[in-house]
Amino acid sequence: MSATQFIGWLCAFCAAENETEVDMSAGHHQEYVEDCTRCCRPNLLEIDIDTKTQEILLEAHSESE
Predict the structure, then answer these.
(1) How many domains does the chain have?
(2) Which of 18, 31, 41, 52 lies at a 20 to 30 A Cα distance from 9?
(3) Integer angstrom CA distances of residue 21 from 8, 18, 65
């Protein structure tokens, strides 16, 4: 399995489709801020990786939530 995986997410503000690269070796729970490619507003990305299946669950939130 690759050390990184690409996954899509929807902007919490404008619902535009975006994509981010997840570092699979950075731990099973990750959080970071990424700007939307359409509206440029910051989204807090919460990433959880299932340690058994390596499935990625990503949720995008506005930073104020």
Answers:
(1) 1
(2) 52
(3) 9, 11, 23
